[in-house]
Write a structure and sequence with these properties.
Elements lengths: L1 H36 L4 H8 L6 H15 L5 H10 L4 H15 L4 H53 L13 H20 L13 H20 L9 H46 L4 H9 L8 H12 L4 H11 L3 H15 L5 H25 L1 H31 L7 H34 L6 H19 L5 H7 L1
Helix pairs in contact: 1-2, 1-5, 1-6, 1-13, 1-14, 2-3, 3-4, 4-5, 5-6, 6-7, 6-14, 6-15, 7-16, 8-9, 9-10, 9-13, 9-14, 9-16, 9-17, 10-11, 11-12, 12-13, 13-14, 15-16, 15-17, 16-17
Length: about 500
């Protein structure tokens, strides 16, 4: 039994390692190719990889190979051969096997590496397309869930109010309606978990502690007001809950928007900088001067101060390693960081020849094209999500209001009891609160889908809650009167 559990744990570990390695493999092959183009051998390439923290899994694999060389005294090719025999990733094993074979056979190593690099990015692009298709399937499932729950709620509400049966009294226990009000938020939470690993962002999430620090006070105040029913007489509970959710979302929405804009501008500017460096290098200018020239441009939007700072630091003779750490403090986009790290490694290794820089700029352009295309493909889901939530919120509220007005017409001439009025108001408040919570969760879902980070959904949550507020005000104020429509017909 213990052996079986250990075997399962090992299989699970190997599966996770494979995913991590496959995610980092295109960048690993890029580093190996460009450093080999600069004239470095396998041993020094792995020494460089050991220092690149942006590729943590590859860094561990590189350390294993270096230990075989430094501690066991093996030559680099033998160590790589041993590493490829038991790889966590089949793709990594195939790459190392071909690398060793091309060196031992005296073949054209650089051609092999460049072909593998091209293939790796083609596979990466195909993987991104497949992820978009998976995300599309999940979004359609989420939309279907919204429609099904709305249909069930309308049916249960109709039965509860006696509209279907024609009865003047309640025919279905109203507790079913309360259960359905909980289903939509719960299902949204489940879908938030489902998409957790489907679209990973190049930007880190905001710190949960900071989000809670700004969000807990307003939510706590709203919870106390709702449970104490202080504002129930004026139907204010929904507005308190919605206001609290907006207040809790404003800081993370503004903070992430600022970070996201900076990182997108940096992602757009990086291929331009690398291409400028390459073209300037073709004119015979030194690598450092090429970087200074390219970074002094003023059309990089919010990335301008950082790019200009790189140029100034280089002019002052600050080491490339320190300059990279400065960029890393400001920028969290993985594509930008890995491009600059490879650039600085190539230059510091005595490289920086035209062919190497041309390969790097082409690679960066390919990465940028894939990422920007993916963002464009996912953007329509923002509008779809907004439309569905707006229709769902308005329709649900209108259904409750409609059945209330139909009941009034059926009982025309009868004096409505205080109990019935309180029951209707209570249900309307419960539905409104459920819609606002669902709108907030839907915003997080849309943000995760489109930006790859839950933090990117706070802004959408604010907008969706405002849209829901409009629906609540329209229905509660009686701007749409079903009784008059029925009367005119």
């Amino acid at each position: 039994m213990m052996l079986s559990l250990k075997k399962l744990d090992q299989m699970d570990y190997d599966k996770k390692q494979k995913k991590k390695i496959d995610r980092e493999l295109p960048y690993f092959i890029t580093v190996v190719t460009l450093l080999a183009t600069s004239g470095l051998g396998p041993y020094f390439i792995f020494k460089k990889l050991k220092e690149i923290n942006l590729l943590p899994t590859i860094k561990i694999e590189s350390e294993k190979i270096l230990k075989r060389i430094d501690l066991l005294g093996l030559d680099p090719l033998t160590a790589m051969n041993q590493a490829k025999d038991k790889p966590s990733s089949k793709a990594l094993g195939e790459f190392l096997s071909g690398y060793v074979s091309s060196i031992q056979s005296g073949g054209n190593v650089l051609n092999y590496l460049k072909s593998k690099m091209t293939t790796a990015y083609e596979n990466h692009e195909n993987a991104q397309k497949q992820s978009i298709e998976k995300i599309s399937g999940v979004v359609h499932g989420w939309l279907s869930m919204q429609i099904v729950i709305l249909a069930l709620f309308i049916m249960v509400s109709a039965m509860s109010s006696g509209v279907i049966s024609g009865a003047t009294t309640t025919t279905t226990d109203s507790s079913y309606q309360n259960y359905l009000l909980l289903v939509a938020p719960v299902m949204s939470i489940i879908f938030l978990k489902v998409v957790q690993n489907m679209n990973t962002a190049n930007i880190n999430e905001l710190e949960i502690k900071k989000i809670l620090r700004y969000g807990i006070p307003s939510v706590l105040i709203a919870t106390i007001l709702v449970f104490t029913n202080v504002l129930s007489s004026v139907n204010g509970n929904a507005y308190v809950v919605g206001g609290a959710l907006i207040a809790a979302s404003i800081w993370p929405a503004i903070k992430f928007k600022k970070i996201y804009t900076l990182n997108i501008d940096a992602e757009d500017a990086t291929p331009q900088i690398l291409r400028d460096i390459t073209e300037a290098r073709k004119a015979g200018i030194g690598p450092e001067k090429c970087v200074i020239r390219a970074c002094k441009r003023t059309d990089y939007k919010s990335f301008n101060p950082i790019a200009n700072a790189v140029a100034n630091k280089l002019e002052w003779g600050i080491p490339l390693k320190d300059i990279f750490e400065t960029i890393k403090k400001e920028i969290k986009n993985f594509q930008v960081l890995i491009s600059f790290r490879i650039l600085f490694e190539v230059i510091s290794s005595g490289g920086g020849n035209v062919n190497t820089l041309d390969s790097l700029s082409s690679t960066s352009e390919n990465m940028h094209t894939v990422e920007s295309h993916k963002r464009e493909m996912l953007k329509p889901y923002i509008m779809v999500g907004f439309m569905v939530m707006a229709v769902t919120a308005f329709t649900t509220l209108l259904v409750i209001s409609s059945f209330e007005q139909i009941d009034e017409q059926k009982n025309l001439g009868k004096t409505p009891t205080q109990q019935n009025n309180e029951k209707t108001n209570s249900l309307m408040q419960a539905v409104s609160i459920s819609i606002l919570i669902q709108s907030w969760l839907a915003g997080l879902f849309i943000g995760k889908i489109t930006t790859g980070a839950y933090s990117g959904g706070f802004l959408y949550s604010v907008f969706l809650i405002m849209i829901s507020f409009v629906g609540i005000v329209i229905v509660q104020s009686g701007m749409i009167n079903i009784s008059s429509i029925l009367g005119s017909s």
